[in-house]
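User: Sequence recovery, please. Input:
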């Protein structure tokens, strides 16, 4: 064998064997994001996403205008819509704001508890659960197989929402299309009511140090915001004051079919948008693209949403 042949054989022997392409992994990273509001730790938790035909749901506009607004954000239909909850650790209390859909909305939702665990907590550690309103995608995660998910927690929601959604008479009188909303709320809250772990909220004010509630009735009869404040910093959690960022920030007058009282919901949204832009505090919303946290600035007749800057430095 010649020197050239020996060298070629040596190179071939040393060359790595050809590898098959690495298989793709069709899963997403755990859905949690953490930030500080002064001394208070806030962890956004994803319950998942759900596709919505928002062109058919949004009101006081037209399907074509909705499609055009989505196209400007390079979005299409159905719109993949986030469902978010927020875990607030004040240092003395662990408070969950909204519990996600649980099993009430299909397999793409119901991931909040898994993400809570991925974020380093367990459901048993939660002291209180505050519900913005009793629609199924906010209360379904309270129970699993009829049992308490947050076994040591007190659940709180507005008295008006409790009176409306937990009423057997209202369920009986509801339209066929609406009965599921009542059934979901009643199935989700019943174990807490029976265990003496449900406490309605009848007025605005502090619930635990650093967290207070504020009535924003309109989307439902008892919709509430929750406000986290510490060391001069503030985060207001809006629940369902708005749903579709690509449409409603630029056009706050657009409402949604799910609003119980569209005029009241619109008034609350206008007030919330204006105050957030004027004061510059952070906001979080249940259906903004996860983690759903950012700030607003006024622009023309509408607003521009600036998502929170990603950080790995959790400084107080």
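Assistant: Recovered sequence (316 residues):
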């Amino acid at each position: 064998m010649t020197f050239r042949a020996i060298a070629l054989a040596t190179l071939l022997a040393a060359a790595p064997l050809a590898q098959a392409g690495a298989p793709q992994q069709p899963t997403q990273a755990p859905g949690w994001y953490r930030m500080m509001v002064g001394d208070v730790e806030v962890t956004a938790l994803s319950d998942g996403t759900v596709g919505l035909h928002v062109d058919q749901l949004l009101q006081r506009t037209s399907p074509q205008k909705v499609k055009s607004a989505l196209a400007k954000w390079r979005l299409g239909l159905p719109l993949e819509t986030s469902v978010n909850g927020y875990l607030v650790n004040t240092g003395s209390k662990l408070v969950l704001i909204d519990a996600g859909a649980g099993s009430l909305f299909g397999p793409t939702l119901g991931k909040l508890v898994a993400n809570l665990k991925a974020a380093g907590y367990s459901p048993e550690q939660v002291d209180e659960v505050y519900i913005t309103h009793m629609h199924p995608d906010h209360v379904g995660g309270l129970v699993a197989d009829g049992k308490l998910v947050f076994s040591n927690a007190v659940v709180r929601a507005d008295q008006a929402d409790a009176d409306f959604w937990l009423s057997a008479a209202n369920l009986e009188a509801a339209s066929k299309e609406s009965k599921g909303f009542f059934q979901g709320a009643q199935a989700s809250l019943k174990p807490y009511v029976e265990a003496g772990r449900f406490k309605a909220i009848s007025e605005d004010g502090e619930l635990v140090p650093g967290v207070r509630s504020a009535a924003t009735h309109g989307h439902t009869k008892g919709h509430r915001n929750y406000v986290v404040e510490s060391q001069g910093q503030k985060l207001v959690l809006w629940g369902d004051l708005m749903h579709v960022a690509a449409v409603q920030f630029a056009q706050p007058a657009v409402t949604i079919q799910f609003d119980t009282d569209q005029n009241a919901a619109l008034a609350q949204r206008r007030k919330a948008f204006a105050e957030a832009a004027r004061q510059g505090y952070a906001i979080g919303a249940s259906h903004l693209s996860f983690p759903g946290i950012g700030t607003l600035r006024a622009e023309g007749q509408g607003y521009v949403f600036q998502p929170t800057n990603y950080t790995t430095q959790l400084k107080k």
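The longest strand covers residues 40-52.
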